[in-house]
UniProtKB/TrEMBL annotation:
<dbReference type="Pfam" id="PF08450">
    <property type="entry name" value="SGL"/>
</dbReference>
<protein>
    <submittedName>
        <fullName>SMP-30/gluconolaconase/LRE domain-containing protein</fullName>
    </submittedName>
</protein>
<feature type="binding site">
    <location>
        <position position="173"/>
    </location>
    <ligand>
        <name>a divalent metal cation</name>
    </ligand>
</feature>
<dbReference type="GO" id="GO:0046872">
    <property type="term" value="F:metal ion binding"/>
</dbReference>
<keyword id="KW-0479">Metal-binding</keyword>
<keyword id="KW-0862">Zinc</keyword>
<dbReference type="InterPro" id="IPR051262">
    <property type="entry name" value="SMP-30/CGR1_Lactonase"/>
</dbReference>
<feature type="active site" description="Proton donor/acceptor">
    <location>
        <position position="226"/>
    </location>
</feature>
<feature type="domain" description="SMP-30/Gluconolactonase/LRE-like region">
    <location>
        <begin position="3"/>
        <end position="283"/>
    </location>
</feature>
<feature type="binding site">
    <location>
        <position position="123"/>
    </location>
    <ligand>
        <name>substrate</name>
    </ligand>
</feature>
<dbReference type="InterPro" id="IPR013658">
    <property type="entry name" value="SGL"/>
</dbReference>
<feature type="binding site">
    <location>
        <position position="226"/>
    </location>
    <ligand>
        <name>a divalent metal cation</name>
    </ligand>
</feature>
<dbReference type="InterPro" id="IPR011042">
    <property type="entry name" value="6-blade_b-propeller_TolB-like"/>
</dbReference>
<dbReference type="InterPro" id="IPR005511">
    <property type="entry name" value="SMP-30"/>
</dbReference>
Length: 301
């Protein structure tokens, strides 16, 4: 697979993933065979199911992929397949929706900032859907030359209007809700910080705190926090760049354990419906790692 991200575990045992470098959404069946679900073009990143069964897609616009030094072009860095530059034929960054027949429509290309301005999406990264049918979106930002755009956290309720609810964040990435939906967790890739936002109601922030920081590691002893998921007990699983693998925290922010992987570009993960199995996207090597009895693998008793 071409730089997989954002796995969704389905009831039939298959897993949906976005292929950012392939510009498509793919179904991976239990026997390892694959089936293309939709050609989104550009760079589909985070995906999630809406209550009506459709898929919402964070379309980041695309990139040029190749083998490059990571994390920096310095002695001791490693060579990985990764984004190495802007797309030659980019799409407009947007949220897309895919229906059961694979038809793709644009939901929006903009959001309403906290000051009331209508602004274009910069580089949508990840998305999670709440029980009311609303959804939270991180706009990951981008670097142009020596300038970097600051972005934040967005929410669309049942009216479908995407509004900014937190700004600024430092390259916001993974986003997930607590089991009772009273808290929202957001990963900042560059700082390795996991934010906890208390919700007074869907899309309304009532409190905020830095909950935890994922460890550094890998080449040059740096890294980042990528995708998130939360189990029914409130444990927070974070795809950990650099070290490679998944870091697990309690709802209180205590480090509980980790699962190692051999790809520093570990981008995301999800749990099976019964929560016994963990599916992890190893993007640079184009694989899905399946971890049976993930709690034992993470050293959690």
């Amino acid at each position: 697979m071409a730089f997989p991200e954002s796995p969704i575990a389905e009831a039939d045992g298959s897993v949906l993933v976005s292929e950012i470098a392939g510009g498509c959404i793919t179904r991976v069946r239990p026997d390892g065979t694959t089936e293309k679900v939709a050609d989104t073009g550009g760079g589909p990143n985070g995906i999630a199911r809406l209550p009506d069964g459709r898929l919402v897609v964070c379309q980041n616009g695309g990139s040029t992929f190749g083998v490059g030094s990571w994390p920096y072009d310095l002695p001791g860095a490693t060579k990985l397949f990764r984004p190495i530059g802007p797309a030659t034929a980019p799409l407009t960054p947007q949220l897309q929706v895919i229906d059961a027949d694979g038809r793709i429509e644009t939901l929006t290309t903009e959001f309403i900032a906290r000051n009331g301005q209508r602004l274009p999406l910069v580089r949508p990264s990840d998305v999670c859907v709440d029980s009311s049918g609303g959804y939270y979106v991180t706009d990951g930002g981008t670097i142009r030359g020596r300038s970097r755009e600051m972005t934040g956290l967005l929410y669309a309720g049942l009216d479908g209007v995407l509004r900014e609810i937190v700004y600024p964040l430092e390259m916001p990435n993974g986003v997930a809700l607590s089991p009772d939906e009273s808290k929202l967790y957001v990963a900042e890739t560059r700082t390795r910080r996991i934010w906890e936002f208390g919700l007074d109601e869907p899309g309304v922030i009532g409190s905020a705190r830095g909950l935890a920081t994922v460890p550094s590691g890998g080449p040059l002893n740096v890294g980042g926090a990528d995708g998130l998921c939360v189990d029914s007990a409130g444990r927070i699983l974070v795809a950990t760049l650099g070290t490679g693998g998944v870091t697990v925290f309690s709802a209180a922010g205590e480090l509980l354990g980790a699962i190692e992987a051999d790809d520093p570009m570990t981008t995301n993960m999800t749990l099976s419906p019964d929560e016994t199995r963990l599916y992890v996207t190893l993007a640079s090597s184009g694989r899905i790692l399946v971890v049976e009895d993930w709690m034992t693998a993470a050293g959690i008793r």
